[in-house]
Give the backbone structure.
Amino acid sequence: MATESTASTAQTAPEAPAKRGRRQEKVGLVTSAKMSKTIVVKVTRLTKHRLYGRVLRVTKKFYAHDESGQAQPGDRVRIVETRPMSKLKRWRLVEVLGHRGSAE
């Protein structure tokens, strides 16, 4: 007489699909729109110096995909993280928050 294990007869629940984490969003200023379907966005954030405690303004630039070419230099835009589209481009334009004059 062979004994059957209860594990082989038990029904397993179907696996839930893997959930993606929230994508990062950043708000910044367009500094260049000279490339085809690509904009350069300058994002400025405030951070505290680890040792001295002084508040520093840290600026970083991101390359973002702008399919329709609606963003112009000086515009305030919202970008969102996306799949890699080229060597440097990992962000996508979501919306133009406000229009402004030239960036420089």
Summary: The longest strand covers residues 25-35. The radius of gyration is 23 Å.
